[in-house]
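Hey, quick one: can you model this chain's 3D structure?
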Amino acid sequence: MQDFIKIHENDNVIVALNPIPAGRVLTIPDKGGEVSVTAAEEIPAGHKMAVRDIPAGGEVIKYGFRIGNAKEDIPKGRWIHTHNIKTALGDLLEYSYEPVKVNIQPEEEAYFMGFERPDGKVGVRNEIWVIPTVGCVNNVAAAIAREANAYVEGSVEEVIAFPHPYGCSQMGDDQEHTRTILADLINHPNAGGVLVLGLGCENSNIDVLKEYIGEYDEKRVRFLVAQESDDELADGVAVCRELIDYAKGFTRAKVGTGKLIVGMKCGGSDGLSGITANPLVGRFSDMLTARGGTTILTEVPEMFGAETLLMNRCENKELFDKTVKLINDFKNYFTSHNQTIYENPSPGNKKGGISTLEDKSLGCTQKSGSSYVRGVLDYGERVKTPGLNLLSAPGNDLVAATALAAAGAQIVLFTTGRGTPFASPVPTVKISTNSRLAGKKSGWIDFNAGVLVEDADPEETARKFFDYVLEVASGKKVRSEEAGFHDMAIFKQGVTL
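Sure thing. Here's the predicted structure for all 497 residues.
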């Protein structure tokens, strides 16, 4: 395994793959030749070292792009991190559409074993979901799911409750978001049957929510109002038993990848995220969209500083304009709450080697691969166009992953350099950026991308990962499913009454 990587030929930094001790002489590729650089201090794994002298105010270049400016003169061989680099980001920017040509050719459709639903959608799981309309009935929903699991049979895999704190005491966009996300989940094809559990006096009561759900199959979606029931627990379990009886009629069938929708998210990023796991997911995105499938990239604040790379891959000017709005709306959201736009990365990101938001964003957007952007979605909007889509949602792991599921993703790919046990409403594949994490947290990690800096072949690893995701789509449980973890969270912006 090599000790460092220079990502782009124009970079003036390298990234340490192993700790580099002070005094070590490194031979660095540089403009067709090589230069020798002596480490002036210890460089932690995942962190950056200058390979050229960078003057105060000069640009620090990684991935071939600026990730910030030097706070002071940085001689070559020095560690570069938050102590001597600062973000170069400003507030709202003017953007111009400078389209780039994408050269990804269509590939023959691949297949997985999924559950075909009467409405034409396809699920990768056949579960019964208990969805409360309001937080007041969360514990009842959880109790119903626990008891109803005793009656699971046939192709039905599990009864799952999705508690959340909202559905009442909300106004404006917050109330709309709650209703929209709940309706999206009720309509999600991974659920073979759904019990919508209401209290009866909440703002987002069942009658109101039905307007957001739209047309539904009365055999698949059932409703129960707790205040109208003598024994809501017994009644809820009885309804779940009927839903199980209905859903067990579904069996897996061979389905083309044109029906597969996969969300892409990262969390707990480190200095290897943009080198291993995120590019691997980007390669997967290209492979899936070339085969007629759909991918969705979200966490808009972690596009700041790299947004033009996405804007210029928009298939047309209309999508470019939507992407500009996507970015600027989130910047306005920050400033309207008197918050700094670039107050990122997190302490864990910094410990892992990420120094600025541009550093984080250029790594984050690697997950988008290199295909055209073919759709731009508002928060809560369901995907309509095959190919790569951008989705408005924050960087928060639970909120963003739930938003991906609500947009239609049957699976979420989650890259991480720090590790996390969380899940989402759909199978959440954890991809580690480094082998140390994969070995330490084998109960969390599903696929190790750290092998990409250990001489693994990138193309072969991408094929293995693509095949693995199709196995998950065909029923293979991910670690969080095996642990029984299922999470959801809704984006809250305003006041609580």
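One thing worth noting: The chain has a mean pLDDT of 95.
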